[in-house]
Amino acid sequence: MAIQSLEKAHYLAKRAIQVPGIWRFDMNLQKAVQLSESKSIEFRIDGSNILNHPEPGTPTLSINNTNFGMITGNAAKTTAHRQFMGQLRFRF
Question: Residue 3, Cβ neighbours under 10 Å: how many?
Answer without folding.
Answer: 5
